[in-house]
Amino acid sequence: MAVSLLRRDKRSAAASLKAECSRPDGRGVQLLNDLLDSVLSPERALAEAEVIEWCKCLIAGGESFDDFCKMVCAYDNATLCGLVWTANFVAYRCRTCGISPCMSLCAECFNAGEHTGHDFNMFRSQAGGACDCGDSSVMRDSGFCKRHRSTASLNIPSVPNELMMMSEHILPRVILRLVQHLRDGYSEPVSDPATERDLQKTLQQMDPLISLLEDLTKMGGATRSILTRVLANHQIYKDLCSGDLCTGEKTYAKKNYEKYLAALKGSGLVTSKERSVTSVLDQMAGASNVTILGATAGTGQMDSSDEEEQDGNQRVGKRKRVELCNSTKDPSIMDILKHKCFLEEILFWTVKYEFPQKMVTFLLNMLPDQDYKIAFTKTFVQHYAFIMKTLIKSHESDTMSNRIVHISVQLFSNEELARQVTEECQLLEIMVTVLLYMMESCLIKSELQDEENNFHVVVNCGEPLLKNNTYWPLVSDFINILSHQSVAKRFLEDQGLLQMWMNFVSFFQGMNLNKRELNEHVEFESQTYYAAFAAELEACAQPMWGLLTHCKIRETQGYTRTVVRYCLDALQDWFDAINFVDEPAPNQVTFHLPLHRYYAMFLSKAIRCQQLDLDSLLPDQEMLMKMMVHPLQIQASLSEIHSNMWVRNGLQIKGQAMTYVQSHFCNSMIDPDIFLLQVCASRLDPDYFVSSVFERFKVVDLLTMASQHQNAALDTEHERSMLEGALTFLVILLSLRIHLGMTDDEILRAEMVAQLCMSDRTHSTLLDLIPENPNPKSGIIPGSYYFENMLSAVADFKAPVFEPGGSMQQGMYTPKADVWNQEFDPIMVILRTVYRRDVQSAMDRYMGFLKQTGKFCGNPWPPYRERAPLNPSYKGLMRILHCKTLHIVLFTLLYKMSMDHQNMSEHILCMVLYLIELGLDNLPEETVEEEEMFGEERCSDSWFHGTNIATNLNHVINYVRVRVPETAPEVTREPPASTSSDTSSFVQGSRRATALNRESSNTAQVFSLVAERRRKFQEIINRNSDNAIQNADVRPKTSKWTAPSSTPQLTTAILEVRESMLSLLIKLHYKLSGKQNSYYPFWLEDSESTSRLDPMQQSHGDGTTAVERILIKTAARSRQNKCSIEEICRKVAPPVPPKKNSSADKKALDKEERRQKARERQQKLLAEFASRQKSFMETAMDLESPDSDVAMDIGSSEQQDSETVYDCVICGQSGPSTEERPTGLVVLLQASSVLGHRRRSTEPKKLPTSDEEQIYPEDTCGTAHDVRITDLQQYFKDSSCLQSVSIGWEGGVYVQTCGHTLHIDCHKSYMESLRNDQVLQSFSVDKGEFTCPLCRQFANSVLPCYPEKSEEKSIWSPYISKTLQALIEEVEEQQEQLGMFPSVTNLSKEMESVMKDIKNTTQKKYIDYGKTPGSPDNDFLFMYSVARLNLELELVHRGGNLCLGGASATTKRSCLNQLLHVLAMHMRLFRIDSAYNPWTRLTRLTQVIDSGICDDEKPEVPLLYRDISSLLLILVLTMPQELHKEHFTCIVKVLYNLLYTQAIATLSVRFSEEERTAWKNSGKLKIMCNSDKSWEVLLSHIIGELSKGKLYCASDTDQVSMLSTSVWSPQSIEYSIQQFCLPFLRTTSLLQHHLFGDDLPNCQRTEEEFGMLASYLGLLLSSLQSSDEANSSSCLEWPVAALDIISQWCSEVMTSAESHSEQVMNLLVQDPQWSLPCLLQLPENYNTIFQYYHRKACVHCSKVPKDPALCLVCGTFVCLKGQCCKQQSYCECVLHSQNCGAGTGIFLLINASVIIVIRGHRFCLWGSVYLDTHGEEDRDLRRGKPLYLCSERYKVLEQQWVTHTFDHINKRWGAHYNGL
Ligand SMILES: [Zn+2]
Ligand SMILES: [Zn+2]
Ligand SMILES: [Zn+2]
Ligand SMILES: [Zn+2]
Ligand SMILES: [Zn+2]
Ligand SMILES: [Zn+2]
Ligand SMILES: [Zn+2]
Ligand SMILES: [Zn+2]
Asked: How far, in Å, CA of 1420 to CA of 898, rounded?
């Protein structure tokens, strides 16, 4: 029966089966199953079309599948969009509507939703995703589109059962077949390409089946719920495919099932029953690794040995991988999988096949079904460990990672679901276990501290797992679920998890250890640090921030306490494991201390938000001391790295230092470290802390008052910068309040100010640079109101501007004046700078501000800033400022400074003063007067009695005993009889009695910081005496302790000091001001002025200001200080207040200094200039813009009567250009099609953004001229045609110059030297390209200057000498002269050569228009067309008319005159046969030459068809050398007559028949009076003449009559004649201007232009110039009877008209008017372009290009870089640039919003004309914010295109090798 069904037509079979099945007897179902047995038989290949056909028909139950689809879809009531997309899809994200940050929308839902004014962006999906529209757990309902609003689905009825019945029966079998196929096709990959191909084949074969399933899922809720039932049902799975099966082919089923079991086993996944067996076996075999790597132990080990071999080549020291024996992982998570339904097994196979895209899409498409989503999520979690294990082994882990995250994001972003699987499926345990498992596979022994006795293990950052970031999907899932409060709580409450987690974190503690190279440069710069930073930030810090967001309130105190406890435990374990005692190992540093940072950040949160008591969370003192060591070591190393002490480790160490502080990471790296150090400092003994700092920075030895010292730890060259580093660190430590009391607002503000002070920033850079503070996940949301408000409070917006040099500024934010005035904080800037130069830049900008506002004119010091109040918990920190150790250091440094000791610097003084001032601002709370109190006895008590800085400032130190080398000057000094009380107290200070006698004096000055610190440490250790074992463990310290720096050459000397810090400060004031007695306390001067006491007023200034401020503060703090200051000042100075004088002096000094500087600059410039003159090789002065230098003005030089003198920019000599040694202009020749793109209409064309809009090229100037020349060539003699038009509208050669000249022989040697220059140039010397040696403008040829003969330039007056008739004869005579070859000179050779260059500039197709290629007629046409093009372009550059012609500066540096000479020289070589010379026909009545009716040759082109401007150029350029102006005028006059006739003829065609008759008659009446100059007469005559033929008949019919809608009046006739003539008058005027050098006239109104130009050209008598009267006909001057010659011209047309009656109209009607060239008009919003073009298919290859681009000149859409549209190695974009712009192309890259410009073989990224609301570009649409057209920029682009200045203005050019 089934067999017979198979043979039937599928649809009818399906229909009858459906009928059978609906009967209750079940016979139909049996029948169906039989049929399916055969259709879905495993023996049949899945790829067979039949199989899918049958499935489709059966499911549809007799309908066609498409109809079935539609029917089911109609019942779809799904409220979720769920559209699944893959990588590179363009999607949207709306922060206003999103609940989860991962939310995304498809374009359709986004556009159909309401998001105006929302904070949204577009993005390109990287891993793929799915649309969340309709899912209220991920986004707010208000953002749903209309389709997916829940109400929309209410009235849709549910699907009738009957419709879905067949699917219910068939789908289980389909799924079974899928699983069978997957089982059959699988074979374990053995890194063998063959098996991989097999897997690919298996996947390919099942493609149709998966597509079918995908179609089903898209039909809507009904099919999805059937599929869900099939996939998730345990019974169905058991019935169909577990071991004992029911179907007939048992043997197959069994084999098939065994394959599945084998695959399970091969993956190391076994059921617990089987597992017990294997483990017994393993034990028997004695496999020791089983516990670590589970069943995969064997392969695991193989891997490791392989990799070690690979790494061996690179790593210097081979590091053995360590395997932990007490692994924490739970085998039930890692190793066991048992499948109970289809879904589980299908996911298993999906993993096995490494996530094939199709399967992923199918699985995700099912997600809108809620039951499925839950079941699938559980299944995913069940397989989680297996997935990650597969990922580690995968060889395409990138793709796989993306696919995994594609799935997991959909599942875990939903809080409810995440919580459910956390509770029911142990999600957290699984994740943490898998993380541990992953990292355990790449552990090595830590080498930190004590290499031998180190038991700590860390991850090896060189392992692929870390290098390739393979763990990221797991970490990103983990972070994702921790963002859900309920899940995070669960984690924080589970102590077991926390412990495991700290264990995990400690794997990163101390990783990537750096050891300072002291001798040799490292051979191999390890790049592992990327991996290390990535690992700490992603795997440690991100989860930390996730957890911290849930510890924000008092109620969560408990969580914080637990975390802190486990963290401290882990730290304790770590110190034990690395065998740490008290001293960091020298010369090593690790930047990775995640445990410290966890501790620090939880501590900060606890104090800030949870009101926890700090002390209750702190460990004991010993632990605190240990915790401080490593972060401090990092700070010292930073300073070492910046002092170049780590140069031998290569650049990478700088990279680490920069990464550590940079703004993306600082809140997870340096900020927690500084905070932890602040906590330590606030609780530890201040003397201990301060001495530790100086010891770590290795500057203890430097802190001596002796003038010489030795330093065992540091080279002298590093001392200064290390001391600077130490002091700067202290200042940062004491003034930073980020975690100590600043509010979020204040932090954001401070960060913003710091970044803005370094440099003006664009909005996006600023967003990028501001650390999300204090908590990355909950802090500032980019673009939030919060951020924007703050920004507008501190910064001003500078709108995007364009500089003349062409560099385009984006919209920038710059600090407000008030910010500079009050908020600029150099400390914050130092903390946040990655590059040291940024600090300088901030200071420079600060100085600029002070100068500009007149606040201060000198070189300012970094201003001192008041700090935000300290959170009381950290009060103890301020004790650092009031400790004797610090005061001794400060005293010593002030002293050294005043004594000019070496290695001191202004920066050091600045920091010292800063510390003193901080101390004065933060006096201890006890009484100010505590001088009398003696503290406990200490070694340092010999210096000061108390600890209050205000008191200690005026404490006088009399003598100090110093240790100096014997050579030091101090040695000679006699010790005074009684030294100060200092030394006596020392003996008890230290326990080291032996060393003390010698050391004690030393202690007096530096008081042996080291010893002091150690003593403190020992004390504390002893206090915790229960830690006896540790003490016993300590290595022989004493031996190491004893005077490590003592060297025999040192001797003791007693130094007489007799200074206090106050007296030193006053001395330094003198020093700084450069004037003795410069300080005088103001209160003595004017006791009433209390206003001066306000220190804020004195915040800006230099060192003297700082000293003054401190003195004022000191005086204010205590009366005694005030007195001391007075006394000191009196002692050294008479009571003359020198203040005012001093500032005046300072000004004078400043002035002198400035003058000096100016002199130096001048000297330098002169030297530079001299060297430039000597040799051109050293002229690399990069002048930004050619306008800025003093180029010669060629235009003006022409006008000089004397011989022109040119300067050679190469050899520097000046002289005229001669035949023997010609000079030339530096020129750039380029082909241009700009004019060809002009259109008739003044409205620019719009860029099409829909399929309806189109651009047709028909109406462009280029096309119109092409059509005309083709038409002419069809009917007239070729050589004549080639003289009747101009070419070059497309591909003509434009010549421009920078105005600089050089000897041509100099140029040649210059080129030679460029050719030999190995330096990579952005231009190609072989193509003749170079840059002007003077202005660096791009050029490619040299145009010779024609030697001028000055006597020709006599003043000329039009009507004095000759009549028109006489002149006509002279012209004719000269025309008749034979073209003479000029004698061959250097000059003529160069002229030929440049002509060659010009020709080679453009493509052949733009030269050869003739029918015989290569004929001289072509050359002739080409040459005068070059002149024409350059004239026309100049006209365009002047704005299209000459109303303000003379005023325009755009064409200042024209080379037209020289160009005309070159062209003329070549054109004169062509002799125009006198018989065909148009001159005769223009000026004489000739016998009707029966032009060839009998001849088989075609006739000449009638004069009325000819282009007048071309005729002019032909006549002018073929005249003999030194054209006289009177002849020029004569030619113009003669041509004007013809032009006028053409105008009238054209006009007459536009008339309607009636009008024509009317005008014809009215003209006849006027024939009497002055008929030659009456337009009416002429019009009437022409109409009469032309009516003789059938000419007008054609015109009345078609489009011409359309024009004549209005009635013609005399005024409108005159107007249109003028318009017709103006283009000719304009180019002719320009020509005259360049030929004869006379100034162009100008006028105010456009109506005056005609008259003005006519009189300029001598057509109008100057007396008639009152231009309103200017009448086109009054310019006529006929050499012969007007009507006769007109008749002659008309008859030329008539005789030939028969042959081309069709074209007569087109040829006769010339319309020379074109609007200015412009680019396509772009839409306001970029999205309009993007949405249409990013999915548009190319017309050539009909594919959607990967990189679509758009020509902005013509709108052509091309495949950038596409192989698809490549023609003979030219990619489409380059090809188009040649066809559309003769080598110049302007393309908008759709996917990047950027414009590229192609110029010949080079290209450059021009920038974008679309900017966001902050005036910024968004290259590559990374931010995806809405972009708007910046019309100013677009204008600039258009301007550069029209003026051909791309080459000059844009700087970064590169070769494109035709690959764009
Ligand atoms: Zn959608
Ligand atoms: Zn939607
Ligand atoms: Zn929205
Ligand atoms: Zn020269
Ligand atoms: Zn130049
Ligand atoms: Zn184009
Ligand atoms: Zn294409
Ligand atoms: Zn293509």
From this structure: 85
